[in-house]
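anyone seen this seq b4? input:
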Amino acid sequence: MTSAAELSSLSSTLKELNDRVSSMAESAQASGSEDMARELFAVERSLAGALRRLGRFTQTA
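predicted toks r here
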């Protein structure tokens, strides 16, 4: 069984990763690397979805 502490740690790690990817995407866009920016923004959206889903799960667990 997964503990609340493990879920909290996972959420924090995902949030950190999401922030890093977001920063990289914004930098890529600013430097004109549109393809890279587009892909990184897609990854950012996926991570944000995972964070929301994990958040909903932890509230019901």
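The first helix runs from residue 4 to 30. The chain has a mean pLDDT of 94. kinda curious what u guys think
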